[in-house]
Design goal:
The longest helix has 26 residues, at 401-426. This protein has 628 residues and is an alpha+beta fold. The termini are far apart. Strands 5, 6, 7, 8, 9, 10, 11, 14 and 15 form a nine-stranded mixed sheet that branches. Strands 16-17-18-21-19-20 form a six-stranded mixed sheet, sandwiched between helices. The protein has a four-stranded antiparallel sheet with strand order 4-3-13-12. Helix 5 (106-125) packs parallel to helix 9 (283-298) and helix 12 crosses helix 15.
């Protein structure tokens, strides 16, 4: 009690030093706190007077994951980002992907993603696997993911003396992906995966069937994986004829900022468009639904369901066709299999297919350079580079080396073609970086032993020489992209617009010479030419040479200088018929003439077609007008 009293005395003195209120707290004779004030000040005091054992801590692995979620699953705070999310039309019941500003919780999305990626990994390991079933159950606050691939062996681990399902799902840094001498085409690598989902859940259950050993294994963890339930192992019922693994989990909603689970399940953020209202949910839930569609799209032949409803996506091209289309006008594009997709397993296969006229601008052109790669290329609809990419079924939101290797090939060839065939027309040299801004690309790749920038796996960092395959785009496909994607046309139109802006910039006058033009040799300007209200009444007389100018200036003594100006041209003006805007803008006579006509860029833009009457005094040529 003496120690407590001394501590309170120190605390009171510390409070006075902080110049806070006169009292920090009230206490009874038993020295127990009844009311605390200025808790932040008390925290400072406790930190300052903490002992070494209180200052330096050792956390158990689970506590560290919960304390520092950013290292493992991303932020638990809601963030905003432009993401493609699924919307289903109530009119046609078709689902499309709409690019929108989404507000989602990365950590909550990630713990779902870990389980769906594990299920997709099983498809790469087991050629007999046929489907993945995802179920969202608001009544029980549970999300379940079941795959019918090879189950987890129901046997005791020889070294760890626990059953294998418990070892790999209830203990960090465990798994089957640690042998880097083996070329794995899966997403797991570090031994975290599903355990992170277990840690961020109030309840986590595994159910796996082992046909070989004729056993059915069930085990549940609660309290963020801290409380382990005893496994239940029974003889496999005769009705179960194949392996399967089902993971069910209830997220720890409070850790993700939800006061109640209803905030997650209730329908919000309704998207309204032409033809009806699309069903909507919390953006994090939408993103989870998007990931289920992703897995169906990048794993051709895999039957995927959401709440027992099959997703009608038969190929990667089908999946890409969902992006940007209006679900109320789409005609079953997602329900028709793309029969052009090459399923040949040889690495030398090189097939491509363009979509029909109704979806070309949305879907683009498809190619499968080899059995590990699928690519769709089109023109960007957002005036910036767009990419949707996957590595071993993992969504790489920020791309990475697998996207870069494709983009570099395309941009270099498109830039060369554009400069060769449109260089004179646009008057500038197109670079690969400029082509990139007009490109939209979808990439699905199988990479051996992939490495990423972080546990979030948003960007692939594996060097291209370690991909395990050689993704080279054929010249034939590149020609199809140049001819049919619309990228070249978009690029040329952009170059023209940019050149026009530069041209107008060269024509404008400075603010200091708004009233009177300065710095143009031999110009005899009209007195009212700089006045925006009176300039429309002014006439500029163009002459060929100085002698003609002298004659015109002499005439100004009769008509006056308020409404008339004179400017001599040096010889024959540039023929602008075949000249680019860059050439026109670089011609001194044209630039000076432009400044004479419009002393403000704003005036020039409003009156884009300005007819200049030319009076040639010493030539018999009678030119009525020409456009600048």
């Amino acid at each position: 009690m003496v120690d407590n009293f001394q501590l309170l005395q120190k605390l009171a003195k510390f409070q006075c030093q902080q110049k806070k209120s006169q009292y920090i707290f009230k206490f009874n004779p038993m020295l127990s706190f009844t009311k605390l004030h200025h808790s932040s000040t008390i925290s400072k005091f406790l930190r300052r007077h903490a002992s070494s054992s209180e200052k330096y801590q050792k956390l158990d692995p689970v506590s560290h994951v919960l304390l520092r979620p950013g290292m493992y699953v991303g932020s638990i705070a809601r963030q905003k980002q432009a993401i493609w999310l699924p919307f289903t039309s109530t009119t046609t019941n078709q689902t499309t992907m709409i690019l929108q500003e989404a507000s989602y919780i990365p950590a909550l999305y990630k713990i779902f993603d870990e389980i769906i990626v594990n299920a997709a990994d099983n498809y790469q390991r087991d050629s007999n696997m046929t489907g993945i079933d995802v179920t969202f159950e608001p009544k029980t606050n549970t999300i379940s993911i079941r795959n019918d691939g090879k189950g987890i062996p129901v046997r005791l681990h020889e070294t760890e003396k626990v059953y294998v399902p418990e070892l790999v799902l209830g203990n960090l840094l465990t798994g089957s992906n640690f042998d880097d001498t083996e070329g794995r085409l899966t997403g797991g690598a570090h031994g975290f995966g599903a355990k992170l989902t277990n840690i961020f859940s109030t309840q986590f259950t595994v159910e796996t069937a082992d046909i070989k050993r004729k056993k059915l294994y069930t085990q549940t963890w609660t309290d963020n994986m801290r409380t382990r339930g005893e496994p239940t192992i029974v003889t496999l019922p005769s009705a179960i004829t194949s392996d399967y693994t089902k993971i069910s989990f209830s997220p720890d909603w409070n850790r993700f900022g939800y006061n109640h689970s209803n905030e997650f399940w209730k329908k919000t953020n309704i998207f309204k468009g032409a033809g009806g209202t699309k069903s909507g949910q919390d953006d994090t839930l939408k993103l989870m639904l998007r990931r289920v569609w992703d897995v169906a799209g990048v794993n051709s032949g895999l039957n995927v369901t959401i709440d027992n409803k099959p997703l009608q996506v038969q190929s990667f091209m089908n999946y890409v066709e969902m992006f940007g289309a209006d679900p109320d006008n789409i005609e079953n594009t997602a329900n028709t299999a793309n029969t052009s997709t090459n399923t040949d397993s040889s690495d030398s296969s090189d097939s491509f297919d363009s979509s029909d006229g109704s979806t070309t601008s949305t879907a683009g052109l498809y190619i499968r350079p080899n059995r590990h790669w699928e690519i769709v290329v089109g023109a960007s609809t957002e005036a910036k580079f767009q990419q949707v990419s996957f590595v071993n079924s993992i969504s790489t939101l920020r791309g990475g080396t697998h996207v870069n290797i494709m983009v570099e090939q395309l941009c270099r060839r498109i830039a060369d073609y554009t400069n060769r065939n449109h260089g004179k027309e646009i008057g500038t040299v197109i670079t690969s970086n400029q082509v990139r801004s007009h490109l939209k690309i979808f990439v699905s790749a199988l990479i051996e032993n992939p490495s990423f920038d972080s546990q979030l796996k948003e960007s692939l960092t594996t060097p291209s020489n370690k991909f395990g395959s050689n993704p080279v785009l054929s010249e034939r496909f590149t020609k199809q992209v140049i001819a049919n994607s619309g990228i070249v046309e978009s690029l040329v139109n952009w170059a023209r617009a940019k050149e026009k802006v530069n041209f107008l910039g060269k024509m404008k006058t400075s603010k200091t010479s708004m009233k009177r033009l300065l710095g143009i040799p031999k110009l005899e300007d009209a007195n009212d030419a700089g006045d925006l209200a009176l300039s429309k009444e002014c006439t500029l007389i163009l002459t060929e040479g100085d002698s003609a100018k002298a004659l015109a200036v002499a005439g100004l003594a009769v008509v006056g200088r308020d409404k008339y100006g004179v400017f001599p041209l040096r010889g024959k003006p540039l023929n602008v018929r075949d000249a680019s805007l860059t050439q026109i803008g670089s011609n001194e006579e044209i630039k000076n003439l432009g400044k004479n006509i419009a002393q403000k860029q704003k005036t020039l833009q409003k009156r884009s077609d300005v007819l200049i009457k030319i009076e040639l005094k010493e030539k018999k040529a009678n030119v009525d007008s020409f456009k600048v």
